[in-house]
Amino acid sequence: MQKAKTRTPLSKVALVLAFSLWMPSANSQASTVFGSPDCGQWVAEKTPTRRTWLMGYLSGLNNLHDLLNQKPKNPLDALSSADQAFLWMDNWCKANPLKSVSNGAIDLFIELMRNKK
Question: What tens digit of pLDDT does each residue of 81-96 get?
Answer without folding.
Answer: 999 999 999 999 999 9
